[in-house]
Amino acid sequence: MISPRGTTELHELVLPAMANHHGTLFAGEGLQRMAKAAFLAARSLAQCEVVMAGVTGIDFTSPVPVGHRLTLRAWVSRVGRSSMTVCVTGLADAPGVPCEEVFKGVFDMVAVNGHGRPQAIDPRYLNQKTRS
């Protein structure tokens, strides 16, 4: 199945190596996976390399025990000339355990050229409200 441009969905199994001393997903591991999902969603829309410029509004709402499946969903919610805002949610479930949102965050990503400088995103994807 192919995801629409600017979206991605990743699945992970929470393993003991990803856990803290409480036996739940270490927040740093969750943040790393959110950043990966944001990167993939932004790059799929921009069709070029991207870098992270900022992170806002990270919320960890529930612990994720070892053995749970983690689903990360990311989508580009705003497109500027070279920047994008990417929203990421994390859902967790296990056999016999209902799916629950466990974290969410907002990432600012920038399309870059081969020298790491901001690069314009194809105008078909520009948000008319953000054009300058």
From TrEMBL:
Matching Pfam families: 4HBT
Native source organism of the sequence: Ottowia flava
Domain of life: Bacteria
Family to which this protein belongs: Belongs to the acyl coenzyme A hydrolase family.
Any one GO molecular function term: fatty acyl-CoA hydrolase activity
Keywords: Hydrolase
Residue span(s) of domain HotDog ACOT-type: 4-115
Residue intervals passing through the bilayer: none
Enzyme class, spelled out: hydrolase
This protein's name: Acyl-CoA thioesterase
Signal peptide (UniProt feature, chain positions): none
EC number: 3.1.2.20
